[in-house]
Structure formats: structure tokens, C-alpha cells
From TrEMBL:
Keyword ATP-binding: yes
SUPFAM superfamilies: Acetyl-CoA synthetase-like
Any single biological process term in GO: long-chain fatty acid import into peroxisome
Any one GO molecular function term: long-chain fatty acid-CoA ligase activity
Naturally occurring in which organism (per UniProt): Sugiyamaella lignohabitans
Keyword terms of this UniProt record: ATP-binding, Ligase, Nucleotide-binding
Region Disordered, residue ranges: 34-57
Record protein name field: Medium-chain fatty acid-CoA ligase FAA2
Compositionally biased spans, kind Polar residues: 34-43
Amino acid sequence: MASQNENGFTEETLRRIWKYNFVLPDGINENTSPFDTTLSSHAAQGKPQALPVPGTKQPGYSEIYRNQCSPDKVISGYHPSVKTFYDAFLTVATTYPKRDCIADREYDQKLKKWGNYKWLSFEETAKRRTKIAAGLVHAVRKATGFDPADKKYIVSVYAPNCVNWILTDLACQTQSLPTVCLYDTLGPHTSEYILNLCESPIVVCSLANVPRILSLKHKLPHVKVIVSTNSFESVPGQFEPAGQSKKELLNVWANDQGVALYSLNEIEALGADFPIADRPPKPEDIYAINFTSGTTGNPKGAILTHANVVAAIAMGRHCLGKNFKPDQVATVYSFLPLAHIYERIAMCIIMSLGHRQAYPHGPVTEIFEDIQILKPTNVNMVPRVLNRVAAALRASTIEAPGLAGAISRKAHEAKLNHLYATGSPNHPIWDFLWSRKIRKKLGFDNLNSLVSGSAPLSKATVEFLKVALAAELLQGYGLTESMSGISVSQPEEPLAGSCGAVAPTTELRFRDVPELGYTANDKPFPRGEIMLRGPQMFTGYYKNNEKTLEAFDEDGWFHTGDVGTVDKLGRIFIIDRVKNFFKLSQGEYVAAEKIENTYLANSSLITQIFVHGDSTESYLVAIAGINPDSYATLANKVLHKRIRPTDLAALAATYDVPEVKAAFIKALNGSTGNLLQGFEKIKNVLLRFEPLTPENDTLTPTLKIKRPAAVKLFKAEIDAMYKEGPLSDSGALNSTPKL
């Protein structure tokens, strides 16, 4: 495994990377409880949350912004005894050994159904991770001769969220072994690229992924051990002829490929027979290499250290501390992929505070079955899910006919006015009469807060969900390279839409982007590319000096590629992307991502949209993924039909009807008000249900649009839209077509 100096980084590249320095908030010492989340004070409501540092403005750049609670220094930790994630987990396991830690649902073979969650305590988790660590080390040593005491290697993990994923991650930390994650939507070529780049000798994966790795083995010279997170045991009562069990068949295949095959249970038993002492990591040691899903070319592996993790935990404690009290154990549902840094750091934050988290039993379409059983207090979400939840709730409440709809509209109006006046999503009367029923229906009986990341949510959606669920909905901003979030909006903010202020663990400034018309001198507040620096920032791209050097400027500031601004409170707003722009035939420059985000943030008609323009054309077209609930209402109104939102086949029959498309364009453009200029609004559209997916290679695994791939896939449809010409958005034909 390559260290930073072995990555081929030049002296200039190393000079630009943040140097580790352990800095604590004022007033923290050995006598401070490591579970106290009240030490980083939030600004009072209406007071600045982040401040420009006087005297730091330079030509082409804004002043440097820091959090108001630490304007003189950037924080990198939260307690003197915790300098690695290994320390953080050990602190909890020794302080609260009997507390619940992690859980999966059990499958009842007799009833053929999933049952309740089965919890492991922190003490049980600690014991199992130690045995698994010893087993992993023994298996790799036997297959390769490698020993982490002499040669650190990278453990690859290729499995969905589950208890065994967490146990593997914690086990690797006891031996200072970094991990790298693979996931289904990467595809075989990218998985092959990552495994070979990292020279990983071992892959811990789900049983379903064992054949995928074995089928690639002839291209993976470094892989010598495969560990299944699932048991190989047959279902009780199921007959399997001798020599034809899963384990026997896979063993034959593995032996042919020169691979040792184990289940995680076998690894744990091996570790019990051959125990080894912990080799704790140092802050500078690599915790993980997280590959960013680039929209073109091979992904880049962001090197993330234990120091980065601790800084990110400190960020989470500052931003989310009000929602996680030390004496009130939170129950967190973790369904977003742990392979992505957003959910992984959420796991680290929750675990460091001694709270418990549980994992899904199956696909994302069944998460609310889990939620009904678990009744979580906190859930990490993404707009793709929240938009659907909001649309379904609107349809059954404030958009419903009759008395139920009237009561819902009255409750919604009263709670919304209360939210604007106080910032609180709670209401003394309507929480009990209205929100309580909604929460119970979803399994959110105990819900405290939701956190959303990865893309913007509309102001209307944030406000509706806050009042309907009587819970906080917080939005954050961050990247893989910043160890996830560097900001999260505060609870009880009356006005929705921001990503909150930069946390005490990072500093921020804006760089002029004159080609897009953004400058640090813009009024009333600076606008430009967001530049980040501090202890949360990654320490380079694995074995990629060129991209690392490009990522940081001479003063160590990281180029995010995101264009943003702040308001009078210092809260961050994302408004554009640096590179996603093109020129139309009449000379106007168009920023596609800004337009897409504007549509997504202001219209409930869509769940995704890809805006396209061409230098030979004078207007924009789009590929839009419809939100069935809102779209059905529009289509039914135009066509005088009664199509149910769940009848996707009937909805699909309306997608190409000119009257529907025209009404859709009118409603979509109308939702943006004056946020878009005329040439920035689409004039024709292709309607589909989820046209953009990782499976058709138009989305990255983190759901960013791969523009060249999308243009290639939809070339015929784009050409047809331009041939059809601009659709009227002011009215439809007089006659109603028969479907």
C-alpha cells in the first residue's frame, strides 16, 4: 500500500496538502466529557453564524469565512483523548458497554418473513471486531505472507449496509488497515480498476458479489482472499445434493482461480483460535480511500485519514449536537450506502456519541417497512427520497378532497405561520391533531430530525415536511474530499434553503469566476467558486499526483467546482457549477447545473432533469424524470382523465402527448418565477419515469449526471425535440386526444 510519499506526490504537491495539527475548542481538557456536545455554541437566532476574517481579502478572492464560535482558529478535534476513529469507538465501548450499537433484522425461516431487529451492544461489537480482525490478518498472511506489522495493505469491501459491514470496518481499524469500498453501480471495469490500483489482496463482500469478483479474478492478480459477509449455510429443510452446496460449488471455482474463500463467521472463528494484539492507527494513518464517481474517466481515490475522521466528527457534533443528547439514546436508520462518504461519516458521528443505528433488510423500495418496525429518531435522507415522500403526503393531506383535505389545509397553514414566526416545526395544537397521524403512518412516531444532502431541496418541500412531520429537516453541504459535510443548517431556522454556515473545522472563501459573471465583489454578498481549507480536507488522490496538484492552489485551498454565495448570517447557498456551461447559437452562456437545480428546488413535478443545449441551437431542451404524484394531477387535468399515480403504464401513455408536454413546460417554467432568464428556460422536453440511472450510465453512483453519456444515450430523442421545435407553453390544442 502506498503512503502519501509513495503516491508519487512531488514536493510541491505535498506542500499544498493540509498538515496535521491537533487543535481543540477553547475550554476543552482531559476533565471534559467526550460526550458533551454543548461546547461549540451556536449563534443566537438572527445573529451571524459565520464571519469574514478582517484583512484576508485578496485580488480575485473574497475574505476568508470562519464559524462565529471559532473566528481565530480552525478546530481539528473534540477531546484530547480522541485522535483517531479507533479512539472514538473505544471511548464509547468502555463508557457505555451495554448500550445497543448496531442491528440487522432477523429472517424467520419458518414464517418466510423478516422479523424484528437484533441488536449488538458496544461491548459485543468490540469483542467481535477484535476476533474478525485477527481472522482477516491470519487469512491474508496464509494466502500472501503479508503481515500488517510489516506491510500494510488495503481491505476492499463490497457489500450493502449491514452489521457485518460495520464489524469489518471496525476490525480493520484495530490493525491500522485502510479500506476501500466497491458498490454495484460502479460496474465491473471500475471495480477492476480500483482493485488493481489499490493492489488489494482481500475482498470482503456479500454472497451475491462473490461470483462477480470470481468472474473478474483473471484480471485481478492481487486478490487472494474473498470473505462473504453472508453465511454459506443452506436454508433449513432445503435439499442440496452432495457436492452441490453453495460453499462447495463456490470453493471449486475459487480454488480454480487461486483464491481462498471464507465466510465472515469462519473468519471470526479463525480469529478466536489465533488472537493478535491491536495495532492502533495514528492520526496521520489512512482510514479509507474513497473513490469519487467522476462524470468522465476513471474515478479518483480520495485519501482520508483518521485525523480527517475526527475533524468530521467534531463538525457533526457542532452542527448536530442539539439533536443528539448524551443521556437520550438516539435510534438512527442507515439506508444510504455506507460506501459513500455521506453515510459513512454519519455512522462515525453517531457511533462516537454512543447512539445506536440499524440497517435495511432489502432494497430501498422497502425502507418504510423497516422504519415502521424500528421507529427511528433520526434518518439521513437525499432529495430523491424526500421529494417522493413529500409528494405522497401532499396528495393524501393538503391536496385531498373533502373534509380531510380541508382540515389538512387549515393545519398546514397554521403550522406554517408558526414556523415563520418561531422557527419551530412544532405546534401546541396541530402536532397532536394532524402531524401525529402522519408520523404514525410512516413509522416516524419518534422522529427528531432528518438530514438531507447531495442536492438541493425546494424551500416549499423543506417547509412542508417540517410542519407535516413536526420534525427538523436540516440541509448540508460537503464533498468526498472534505470528509462529507462542512456545513449543516441550524435547527429552528425560520427560512429554509441554506446549507448552514461553515463549521469550525473548515475555512472557506470564494474565487472569482468571471466567465460566469461571479465575483468576490458582487453585492450584497460575494459570489464565486467555493474554496475550502482545513483538517477535514483529504490528503490527495491515491497514486495521482497530477489531479492532486490540480485540486489545490498554491496556498492549500481546495477547488470544489461549486459556485456559491453567503447571506448576512454567513449561511452558504449553492448556486452553480464552474464547468457545466455552454453557449447557445445567439451567444448566451448557459449553466446547465444551475438551471437543473433551480427546477428541482422549485417544482414538485420532477425528481430528476437533464438540461441540454447546443451551439447550433437557440434554445434548451430537457430529459425529465416525472414525479408520479404531481405529474398525474397535471396530466389528469389536461386530459380529463383519472389516472392513478401508481399506474405507471397509463402515465407513460401520456408522456408524448403534445398538450401534456406543453402544460408540463408551462408549469415547470412557471415554478421558477424570476429565478431564470428566458433563454435559460426549456422549450421542449422528453418525459419519462427515472430516465437517468447509474445502470444506464447516465448517473454516477452518487447521482451526478454524466453529461457526455446522457447526450450519447438520448441523442435520437434530443434530435427529435429540436426537429419538433419549441413547444408552446401557453396552451394546448383544443381537442383532447384519445389514449
